[in-house]
Design a protein that fits this description.
The chain is an alpha/beta fold and 266 residues long. Helix content is 41%, strand content 24%. It has three domains: 1-57; 60-127, membrane protein fhac (Ubiquitin-like (UB roll), Roll); 131-265, Rossmann fold (3-Layer(aba) Sandwich), CATH 3.40.50.11690. Helix 4 packs parallel to helix 5 (217-234).
């Protein structure tokens, strides 16, 4: 009895597999036919869209939208660059090249150029933010890079940086660190210089000159900050220069001590 049931179960399983195979066999031609229809219809659809795209492309650029602060960059400057591409096909206009030309402007930090359907461009301009002057004749952006405008605008009083141009980000970073250390003294950097050998020299907003040397400049400055109130009392606020290039002290010179020898403290 058990053997007969097993045989019947095998027959049913075989019949089921055969049925599935027949159904799959019927589906394959349908799938193939569907694929062929897709291959035939896609070019037809593209043929219907292509004339419209070509018509837009043939018309070329008509409108340009410029988004910017316009503090130092003007809309006509940007429009003049884009004007060279008017009449160029919508899909042919070289947005990367336009961006490069705009970013070549001294006051431009970055630019973004995008197509606006069906016949326009949107240009977004990000201006440089000057945080210091670069000697001679340049400015330093917030990223530490030096840029050279054709004309220096009237700006609030900015500190002056001087050194090797390729080191400008480092010099700006040092300026910020020194200003932070001087904040308790209510003093700011007016001039920060680094010579070709890497030696630092600082002039404060009250005229005091600090010679920091090449090594451990910030540690040496911290030593001066600790003694600064005492130095002002000792010299009656008439400090002219402090030389911090010593491991165990520093040398001061008073404003009226043009002929006197400097005194070493520490």
């Amino acid at each position: 009895m058990i053997k007969r049931r097993s045989a019947q179960a095998r027959l049913k399983s075989e019949d089921g597999n055969a049925g599935r195979s027949r159904r799959l066999g019927r589906r394959i031609p349908l799938l193939v036919l569907g694929g062929l229809l897709v291959l035939v219809l896609i070019p037809k659809l593209l043929d219907g869209v292509r004339p419209r795209l070509q018509a837009v492309d043939w018309m070329g650029l008509k409108t340009v939208k410029v988004v910017a602060r316009f503090d130092h960059v003007t809309a006509p400057e940007i429009q003049q660059i884009v004007a060279a591409y008017r009449g160029t096909g919508f899909f042919d206009v070289d947005v990367a090249r336009i961006r490069e030309q705009i970013e070549a402007k001294p006051w431009v930090s970055a630019a973004d150029v995008r197509r606006l359907w069906p016949d326009g461009l949107q240009v977004t301009v990000y201006e440089q933010s000057a945080v210091a002057r670069w000697r001679p004749g340049g400015l330093v952006g917030s990223d530490g890079e030096v840029f050279m405008p054709e004309r220096l605008p009237v700006l609030p009083t900015l500190p002056v940086l001087d050194g090797v141009a390729s080191r400008s980000p480092l010099i700006l970073s040092q300026l910020r660190a020194i200003d932070d250390m001087l904040r308790p003294l209510q003093r700011q950097v007016a001039v920060l210089e680094q010579d070709a050998r890497g030696s630092w020299r600082v002039v404060l907003d009250d005229g005091l000159v600090m010679v920091l040397g090449r090594r451990d400049a910030l540690q040496r400055l911290q030593r001066l900050v600790s003694y600064y109130p005492q130095l002002l009392q000792l010299e009656h606020g008439q400090l002219a220069q402090v030389d911090l290039r010593y491991s165990n002290g520093f040398v001061i010179r008073a404003m009226d001590a043009t002929t006197a020898a400097p005194r070493r403290l520490g």
